Amino acid sequence: MTESLARTPLHAEHLALGGRMVPFAGFEMPVQYPTGITEEHRAVREAAGLFDVSHMGEFEVRGADALALVQRVTVNDASRVEVGQAQYSAMVDESGGIIDDLIVYRFADRWMLVVNASNREKDWAWVSRHAEGLDVELADRSDEIALLALQGPGARAILAELTDTDLDAVGYYRFVEGGVAGVECVISATGYTGEDGFELYLPSEGAVAVWRTLLEAGASDGLIPAGLGARDSLRLEMGYALYGNDLDAEHTPLESGLGWITKLDKGEFVGRERLAAQKEAGVERRLVGLVLTERGFPRPGYPIVVDGEPVGVVTSGTMSPSLGLGIAMGYVAAAHAAAGSAVAIEIRGKGVAAEVKRPPFYTEGSIRR
Predict the structure, then answer these.
(1) What is the pLDDT of residue 3?
(2) Residue 365: its pLDDT value, please?
(3) Of 185, 247, 290, 340, which alpha carbon lies 20 to 30 A from 239's?
C-alpha cells in the first residue's frame, strides 16, 4: 500500500481480522476477510454482515437557506423530506452529467449530505460554489464521522441488544438519534444490500468500541465482518448503481435509470434545463440490467452486442453468489433497452447470450419498503 492512501478509524481492526486491504476511493479498505467474498455475501443474505464504510463523506448544511442550497444542487425534491427522513438523490452539472449520487438527511436543525468517498473533494467544491450568496454554514464532517453498516436478516435482533432505541420505528429511509453500546449514533435504514439492516453514523473515536461490541454480540447469530467484495456483489444483485461504474459525468440521471428521483417540476436546479430538453427529445441510451442465459462471467468494459454489432458496454458485472448466474449492468442503445430484449456480452471474443432484465435480480431479501 502506498503511504498516500487514507485509513478509516477501523484500519487496525481490519488487519487484526486478516482483512485483505486494497486501494479504494483513496482509502486502504478491506476487500475481503479470510472467510472469502462468497461466504461474506451469504452471511448477509442468511444471517448478518458488518461493513466499515467510514470512507464515505458527510457534509453538514445549516442556516436559513439550507433547503434552498440542497434544492439548487440536487435533482430530487428535498422540500418533501420530513425531519427524520432521508432521500436518495444526485447532483448534476450544467450539461446534466452526474457529479455524484448521494443521500440527503434532514435533521431538525440541519441537513447532512452523504457523498461517495472518491468524489468528496469535487463535491465539496461544487456545493461550496453554489452556496455563494446564500445564508448557509457548511462543514465537512467526513473525518469526524465513522460509518458502520449492519446488514442482514439478523441485523435487527443483534442491534436491539445494544440500544434502547425502538428500531421498529426506523422505517425505510428514516433515521433516529440514539445510543449504541454507549455511543451516540445516527441510526438509519437506507441499505445497499437488499436486506434489512441499519447504518450507524458515530464519532470516529467511538468506532472501534462499537465495531468490537457488535461483532461480539452478533457472533452467536452468525454475524461476520464483510468487505467491499461482498458489498459489491450484494448491491449488484439488487441492481443498485455504483458511482464510477454505472454512474458518471458522461451520463445523465434520465439515461442512468434515475428518472424517478429527477423532479423537473420542483423549480430551478443546476442542470434542469438540459434534463428537461433531454426528456422531451428522449434518451438515446439507457442503463439496464442483464442476465446471462449461458454460462459466463461478465466484467466492466465488455462489449454488449446484437448480431455481432456493438450496442453498449458493461459497467458492472459478476457471477451472482445467490443465483449462480452471470449478472450485469450496462448502457445500451435505447432500441435494445426494453425488458426481455435479447443481446450478447462479448467475453474473450465470444458472444455469450444475455437478456435485458429489470432489477432487482435477487428478490428474496428481507428489506422492508
Answers:
(1) 59
(2) 52
(3) 185
What are the pLDDT digits (tens) for 105-155? 999 999 999 999 999 999 999 999 999 999 999 999 999 999 999 999 999
C-alpha torsion 18→22→24→29, nearest 10: 20
Q: How far apart are the first and last CA of the chain?
A: 40
Instruction: State the cell numbers at 81.
Output: 423530506
Domains 57-140 and 284-363 share a fold: no
One-letter amino acid at 194 equals G
Edge-to-edge strand list for the sheet holding 145-151: 175-180, 183-188, 197-203, 145-151, 48-52, 223-225
For residue 216, which phi and psi values (nearest 5 degrees)? -70, -45
Extract the C-alpha cell encoding 128: 461550496
Beta bridge partners, 32, equal 20
Q: Which residues contact 155 (CB under 8 A, 6 or more apart)?
A: 48, 195, 196, 197, 198
Percent of the chain at pLDDT > 70 equals 98
Q: By C-alpha distance, which of 300, 256, 227 is closest to 36?
A: 227
- Neighbouring residues of 281: CB distance < 8 A, sequence distance ≥ 6: none
Can you list the pairs that 16-24 forms with residues at least 24 positions away whose Cβ atoms lie under 8 Å? 17/225, 19/225, 19/227, 20/227, 22/228, 24/55, 24/117, 24/228
Handedness of CA 123, 128, 130, 135 (dihedral sign): positive
Map out the domains of the chain as residue ranges: 11-53+143-237, 57-140, 284-363
> How many CA atoms, within 13 angstroms, populate the side-chain half-sphere of residue 177?
9
Give the CB-side neighbour count of residue 293, counting CA atoms within 13 A.
11
Phi and psi dihedrals of 335, rounded to 5? -65, -20
Fold of 57-140: Alpha-Beta Plaits (3.30.70)
Asked whether residue 367 carries a pLDDT value surpassing 60, the answer given is no
CATH number of 284-363: 2.40.30.110
CATH architecture of 11-53+143-237: 2-Layer Sandwich (3.30)
What pLDDT was estimated at residue 30? 98
Q: DSSP letter for 358, please.
A: P
State how far the alpha carbon of 211 is from the alpha carbons of 17, 55, 99, 157, 159, in Å: 12, 15, 32, 16, 11
Average pLDDT, the chain: 96
Which grid coordinates are listed for 241? 448503481
